[in-house]
Specification:
The protein is α/β, with parallel strands linked by helices and about 140 residues long. The protein has one domain: HUPs (Rossmann fold, 3-Layer(aba) Sandwich). A four-stranded parallel beta sheet has the order 3-2-1-4, sandwiched between helices. The longest helix has 20 residues. About 15% of the residues are buried.
C-alpha cells in the first residue's frame, strides 16, 4: 500500500522515471510529515515500488554550538524531533513501509543505500546563518 496516493506521471514522461530495480531514496530532513509532503509525493511517483525513506540525525547539527556557546539544538528541540520521528515511523509502518533513522552524517549513510541508477530526493535547507556565511 503506498504511503500517499502517488501523483500520476504525464504520458511520455518515461525519461523522468526510475528503473524498476533501482531504489529511490527520499532523504527527509525537516519535512517530517506524510500528508502534504511534495518530496515524498515525487518519490512515490518515481519509485515503482522500491522506495526508501531515510532520516540522518547529523551529529554536527545536534552537537553544534552557537557563536555565544549555547547549544544550537536544545533539549526541547531534540525531544520534539524524537517525538516527530516516533510518530512518522509509526505512520509509515501502518502503511506497510519503514523509516530508516540513523544518527550519522548523511555522507556516511546515503552511499550505502544507493546503487547505480538510484535516485536520491532531498530538499535544500537554507537558514540565515548559511546566508550570512556565504556573504562573508
Amino acid at each position: 500500500m503506498p504511503l500517499v496516493a502517488p501523483i500520476s506521471a504525464a504520458a511520455g514522461d518515461s525519461a523522468d522515471t526510475a528503473s524498476a530495480t533501482a531504489p529511490v531514496v527520499v532523504w527527509l530532513r525537516n519535512e517530517l510529515r506524510l500528508c502534504d509532503n511534495p518530496l515524498l509525493q515525487r518519490g512515490l511517483q518515481l519509485a515503482k515500488g522500491n522506495l526508501q525513506l531515510v532520516v540522518c540525525l547529523d551529529p554536527r547539527e545536534f552537537q553544534a554550538t552557537t557563536a555565544f556557546g549555547s547549544p544550537k539544538v536544545g533539549e526541547l528541540r531534540k525531544r520534539f524531533v524524537e517525538e516527530c520521528l516516533c510518530d512518522l515511523r509509526r505512520r509509515v509502518a501502518e502503511r506497510g513501509s519503514r523509516l530508516l533513522v540513523q544518527q550519522k552524517a548523511p555522507e556516511e549513510v546515503l552511499p550505502a543505500l544507493v546503487s547505480e541508477g538510484s535516485t536520491v530526493l532531498v530538499t535544500a535547507q537554507v537558514c540565515s546563518e548559511d546566508i550570512a556565511g556565504a556573504a562573508q
